[in-house]
Structures are given as structure tokens and as C-alpha cells.
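WARN no homologs supplied; continuing
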Amino acid sequence: MAVRVAQTHLGMRQMLLLLAVCLFSWGPSAWADISVGRALAAQRQCLGCHQVDARRVGPPFAAIAQRFQGRADAAPYLAQQIRQGSRGQWGAIPMPAQTRVSKTDAIQLARWILSLANTAPH
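OK structure emitted
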């Protein structure tokens, strides 16, 4: 019985360690909650100019995600672009600064956008 309990605990420890390794090895996009990100984008009026997979006034979010996929600084960079605006990166129409979007919301939006990297056709 004691041997069986020890084996069970060892197996449980190994499973917990494996789970921890998997969770901590995921990038920021793995933590993005898709429904929360989309709801936040709608609440902050992002969807007035952007769509997930088609061009509107601005580029599709999936194309933005693909452009910045793999960059270690992608989420903070995109959050800064959201709040400060940008010019000339996606064509002639500039993105105005979204100062009403908090830093916290901007980083959450950026992480959600980055989670869309594999949704657009390559």
C-alpha cells in the first residue's frame, strides 16, 4: 500500500510539473481570452475601423498579428501604437491616437490581436 501511494504521488507530481511547464511555456497570445478581447475591441470602438479578417478603414487584426508574430516586444509595441496612433505603416490613412484606451486595456487588446496570427490566410 505504501509503495502504491508513493507511486501515485510521484505520478501526480510529474503531471503537475508537466502542466506547469506547458502553462509557462505558452506565449502571451495563449493567455488571451478570445471572447473578452473581441468584446473589449467592440467596447473601445476598434471594430469601427478594423475587422478580424477583412480590411475596413484599417488593416484586419489577423494581418497585424501575422506581421508582428514572433516579435518578443509585439504586445507592448502594439499597445503603444494603439494609444499613440500610427502613420504610414498600413497605407495612407493614419490611425489616430486612442488616448481613452487605458494602458491595461491596450495591452489586453494587443494580446488578443496577436492571438489571431493563425486566423488569416497566408
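The CA atoms of residues 83 and 99 lie 5 Å apart.
OK
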